[in-house]
Amino acid sequence: xxxxxxxxxxxxxxxxxxxxxxxxxxxxxxxxxxxxxxxxxxxxxxxxxxxxxxxxxxxxxxxxxxxxxxxxxxxxxxxxxxxxxxxxxxxxxxxxxxxxxxxxxxxxxxxxxxxxxxxxxxxxxxxxxxxxxxxxxxxxxxxxxxxxxxxxxxxxxxxxxxxxxxxxxxxxxxxxxxxxxxxxxxxxxxxxxxxxxxxxxxxxxxxxxxxxxxxxxxxxxxxxxxxxxxxxxxxxxxxxxxxxxxxxxxxxxxxxxxxxxxxxxxxxxxxxxxxxxxxxxxxxxxxxxxxxxxxxxx
Length: 298
Description:
Blueprint: E1 9-15, H1 22-26, E2 35-41, E3 57-61, H2 68-77, E4 83-87, E5 91-93, H3 95-106, E6 111-119, E7 129-130, H4 135-142, E8 170-171, E9 175-179, H5 180-185, H6 198-208, E10 212-223, H7 235-249, H8 252-272, H9 277-291
Parallel strand pairs: 1-2, 1-4, 2-3, 6-10
Antiparallel strand pairs: 4-9, 5-10, 6-9, 7-8
């Protein structure tokens, strides 16, 4: 009798109002050799887990919407495979591409995280390799200077960087593979980040712990609707997360200056979006979010 294929990876998909995309995310990996899919329903109003009920997937109901990091930690705790893949419900990854990510980490013991090329609906690569935020980069984005000075752009756009393996500061959490041993060593995802910047933070902690982040161009993930979707309503969450990241990583003065830079960016972008009312409202809401007194831990 042939022994079952050894379990290599727990794929954690956090679902919140993900009914249109969840099944197409889970189906390619459900039942794949060495793969266990864990879907965490974050108390979503649409509870889309019925769309994957016939697939080989473990469903966990979190009981509350504690945010993306919260859901990731619950999903990771439900498994015990040596690798954990964090996969957004609007992303698609084929089993062979997952194997390429695993291979990248197995070939490099110093690396703890690997990310693939992420392509949009039209096949164009998304800028999934990133530089860590700094006060200069935040100011550059606020004033659109990053368009003139690429080194101040946190997104890496150079096509050459996506043609060969590399070690960027961080990779997009839309599709991120991490060694379970390192995730455990770091205490999991930081649940202070409700949404956004949790991927920046985990990669920063990976580097700080003496490990590396890898980009693997042989693996490709598809991001459904990533480029075209209007996420104006999430602008306040993104802005608040950037401020939270600064407060966690910097001294009080530097964090305060970065919060001002984030607020400046939202104000400038609101002015630039006068012809797009929905986006303008999103930036103004973000400005209000970052000018509130700090309530989170530093």
